[in-house]
Design goal:
Helix content: 25-40%
Largest sheet: 8 strands, antiparallel
Strand content: 15-25%
Number of domains: 5
Bound molecules: ligand MV4
Shape: globular
CATH topology of the largest domain: D-amino Acid Aminotransferase, Chain A, domain 1
Structural class: alpha+beta
Distance between the termini: 55 Å
Radius of gyration: 24 Å
CATH class of the largest domain: Alpha Beta
CATH architecture of the largest domain: 2-Layer Sandwich
């Protein structure tokens, strides 16, 4: 095992990796920008190295500087987390060339899965089902029309260099093809510097289901089963769960075997994820492979009991996976909500400020993976995800109730957050029925954001208003309670903070 690991990341994922290191008896080294000098990941690590000014391009993306820091402090390995340098082939190679271990897949596997068309060709060669379509770039609109006729409308034009939905265009009839092709080419050129576009059959109303794989350096590749990630907005996942209501044990086995085949064909080791579209008829199609640890890994950890981050480190150190595929059976249900500093009432506009109050949920089956504390400055330099709230319960219904309860316990003051939005989703009949697809959230967004607060919130707000009114006549006591005494009826997170105040009052 390593004696010291450098963590090339920040926020909640850096804290998560530090926790794994500590449990393994490995010393951890944080890196930080000027903006993160006082951040939790810096304090929690055994050592910390300053790497530059706040912009990521000057700090967390400075691979050479980070490798140099690792050598200086005597770290033997680097964990990249997710985002930043995690899927840069050149970084994985540079780490290796510096005589260090990259805690992730080989640079060659990152490269093999990096190009979406190359990944598609690799999948086809490995007998992995992909969406019907081409892999060669389209020559012109005539060729596109010919292919579209063959698969039938609607079709989807995709950027060959793409990913993340950029350069994608749905075409519903032949009349739209020429202009859509032009738009897709322009978008692809702008986003990726490459205007190559190819065509696929458009799958309507599918779910996004992905398979977690874990492979060691001795030839064992396991499927850790599926995560359901359909609740997303503009290609940003918001809620993930495991297992998926749409996946039977037989389908789980087939999707797992398929993901293992795709990963093995790429020479993959360590933790990775194969993304699939799953249609209403139970057909699944490989989309792409994420060659990193993912944000939503905790739901898999909950239902498998396997610590993915610890195993990433053990695998990188050369250990063998001790599990058998048959032993990996989902236990219970896990749900994750991404808690972001975005304002759902304002089109999810990023919100900035200083965290002035923070009350964290706890109790049975609740996990908080966070990177913030009271006093944290939330700015615009980095991703707006502040933390993840994850719950585990015996059934999906119980997990939804548990998440709702945990969200009620959560109070974040100082920035707007996605907390209320998640509460509304947990109260939503379609979500509770598991009746979701990749289009579900965009379709329901307006009604969810404008949903009337639930009855208990309204009661809390009414109680709070009464207290506020009374406090106006007892200013000293109001100050002691920390209430402003304006008499305004609070709502949202404030109402829940007020519920706590009201209960304290009732107990006096
Ligand atoms: C698709 C599709 C429907 N049909 N391909 C979006 C990003 C990229 N990873 C692939 N994506 C899609 N490809 C075919 N042939 C629908 C999507 C898609 C999507 C996929 C996964 C999760 C969320 C999504 C949201 C919109 C569209």
């Amino acid at each position: 095992m390593f004696s010291k690991i450098l963590i090339a990341n920040r926020g909640e994922i850096a804290v998560r990796i530090i926790r794994a290191c500590r449990e393994l008896g490995v010393r951890s080294v944080a890196v930080y920008s000027d903006a993160d000098a006082g951040a939790p990941h810096v304090r929690e690590a055994d050592e910390a190295v300053h790497i530059g000014p706040p912009p990521s391009s000057e700090s967390y993306l400075k691979g050479d500087r980070i490798i140099e820091a690792a050598r200086r402090v005597g770290a033997e390995a680097i964990h990249p987390g997710y985002g930043f340098l995690s899927e840069r082939e050149w970084f994985a190679r540079a780490v290796r060339d510096a005589g260090l271990v990259f805690i992730g897949p080989p640079a060659e596997a990152i490269a093999a899965m990096g190009s979406k068309t190359a990944a598609r060709q690799l999948a086809i060669a490995a007998n992995v089902p992909v969406v019907p379509g081409t892999t060669e770039p389209l020559r012109d609109a005539d060729e596109a029309r010919e292919i579209a006729e063959r698969f039938g409308y609607p079709v989807l034009l995709k950027a060959a260099a793409g990913g993340g939905g950029k350069g994608m265009r749905v075409v519903r009839e032949s009349g739209e093809l020429a202009s859509s092709l032009e738009t897709a080419r322009r978008e692809a050129k702008n986003a990726f510097g490459d205007d190559a576009v190819y065509v696929e059959k458009y799958i309507t109303g599918p779910r996004h289901v992905e398979i977690q794989v874990l492979g060691d350096q001795h030839g064992t590749m396991l499927s850790l089963n599926e995560r359901e990630c359909s609740v997303q907005r503009r290609h940003q996942k918001m809620i993930e769960e495991a297992p998926s209501v749409a996946v039977s044990p037989a389908l789980r086995r087939r999707m797992g075997e398929t993901a293992v085949r795709a990963a093995s064909a790429a020479g993959y080791t360590n933790a990775g994820t194969c993304e699939f579209l799953l249609d209403a008829d139970g057909n699944f199609y490989f989309l792409e492979m994420n060659t990193r640890l993912q944000v939503e890994h905790p739901v898999t950890e909950f239902v498998t009991g396997i610590d993915l981050v610890q195993w990433q480190i053990r695998i990188a150190a050369g250990e063998r996976l001790p599990f058998k595929q048959e032993e990996i059976v989902p236990r219970g249900w896990a749900i994750e909500c991404r808690i972001t500093s975005e304002d759902p009432a304002n089109g999810f506009l990023p919100s900035t400020g200083k965290i002035s109050y923070l009350h964290l949920p706890s109790g049975p089956g609740v996990r908080w993976d966070g990177g913030i504390e009271v006093g944290s400055e939330v700015g615009l330099f980095y991703d707006p995800m502040l933390a993840k709230l994850i719950v585990h319960a015996p059934t999906r219904d119980a997990a939804v109730e548990r998440m709702h309860r945990a969200l009620l316990e959560l109070t974040i003051e100082g920035v707007e957050s996605s907390r209320d939005f998640h509460l509304r989703v947990m109260e939503d009949a379609e979500f509770r029925a598991g009746d979701i697809s990749i289009q579900w959230l965009e379709r329901r967004l307006e009604s969810l954001v404008n949903a009337a607060p639930s009855a208990d919130i309204r009661t809390a707000a009414a109680i709070a208003a009464l207290i506020a009114d009374r406090d106006r006549h007892a200013p000293r006591r109001a100050a002691a309670n920390g209430s402003s005494g304006t008499g305004a009826t609070p709502s949202g997170p404030t109402a829940d903070a007020w519920t706590r105040v009201a209960r304290l009052e009732a107990l006096r």
